[in-house]
Input
Amino acid sequence: MRLIDHFVVGGNGGGGGQATRHGDVFNPSTGQIQARVALGDQALLDKVVATAQEAQLSWAATNPQRRARVLFRFKELIEQNMQSLAELLASEHGKVVDDAKGDIQRGLEVVEFCCSIPHMLKGEYTQGAGPGIDVYSMRQPLGVGAGITPFNFPAMIPMWMFAPAVAAGNTFILKPSERDPSVPVRLAELFREAGAPEGVLQVVHGDKEMVDAILDHPGIAAVSFVGSSDIAHYVYKRGVDAGKRVQAMGGAKNHAIIMPDADMDQTVNDLMGAAFGSAGERCMALPVAVPVGEETADILREKVIAAIDKLKVGISTDPEAQYGPVVTAIHKQRIEDWIQTGVNEGAELVVDGRGFKLQGYEEGFFVGPSLFDHVTPDMSAYKEEIFGPVLQIVRAKTFEEAIELPTRHQYGNGVAIFTRNGHAAREFAGRVQVGMVGINVPIPVPVAYHSFGGWKRSAFGDHNQYGMEGVRFWTKVKTVTQRWPDGGAAGDSAFIIPTMG
Output
């Protein structure tokens, strides 16, 4: 059986055949174990951090333009290997190959942005801030950074993290999800092939033991995390208590507000992809539809039922499938348990996706599309993130009621409004208490030169992912005040705070 090892300097670093613990990696389409992944420990991390610290000194001393050239070559290698990367990703995650390509492409866009790192690291300069005094600032790397990434985007989110970190002169240790670890390792191999020195990007595998070791290690200066909100809060608190800079992105329950004047056919088409694409395993999925007015709700319901009837669920390599299986049997059971919870709480289960079987792949981790209507804000199935192919309709009587639903929800990652009314869209965007807003855009993940980040329990920390926010997170500002004496007589000693007057 294939073994997925760590990608670290000096071979397997205690992993591989020497590892005392391993995890199973499944093919979600068949339900069968296809590989085993070596799980690391504190001793392995100590070696990896020491290597990263040594490599960071020379990497930071490499001028930004040369670091950018490595990223340019890395981008080219990913493009050349896009098909094989997508197939590998799909085989472990379960998302269809075209969706896997999108996963890789959205990460690659951040790599492209980071190729401009020489410009982004420029500081500020003031000539003549005082008599013969100039002041300037510079952005410098933090040292060794680490990323802890989730299963649902095994290519995109690692690149969101390590691209700005290494571009800025840090070295990086990636701890991907043990459920689909192969693509992160392959990315590190390609980065090394692109010309990065050994130790600049290393990959370690593990479970909570490795996560805690990363959060506690004194040699790691900053940690970026994406996962569920409870774990994000844990990571943030433990990392900050250990003196680290931490950004921790959590869960979501994104809403789609559907106004009576919306283009209903386009809205339903967008909802199908946003709610059911990637089997709903996205933190920017759109699992809650909020039609305004009973007539709008009734029209939406009928059109969604008809659209669900046309959805095709298939294996990850089926070019006609619109989404594939979920990642594990445990996660499949969790989704189906949430569906039952919704029923128990009194929501109307209009379409039941439980018990879905695909001929020839009966052991695969498939969940059919499910639709609830008459969901209310007091239901736990509405309050919590299901993270599966489940769409819930929460009916709102007015625009004011609709805007209050995402505003008052515990999560604040993304939200969308569908309308032809510019005033309503502008009012909504300004007032809703959510970090990312789409206007007739179902999944408003910002482009690479802006930044990604939610509010409330969807994010912990002061900086968003990628864009200039990412550069700020992975750097620290140093400000220099300089004076060059002109050779005149020395002045009197100053015992008061200096001023520039």
The two ends are 73 Å apart (CA to CA). Residues 13-17 have pLDDT under 50 and may be disordered.
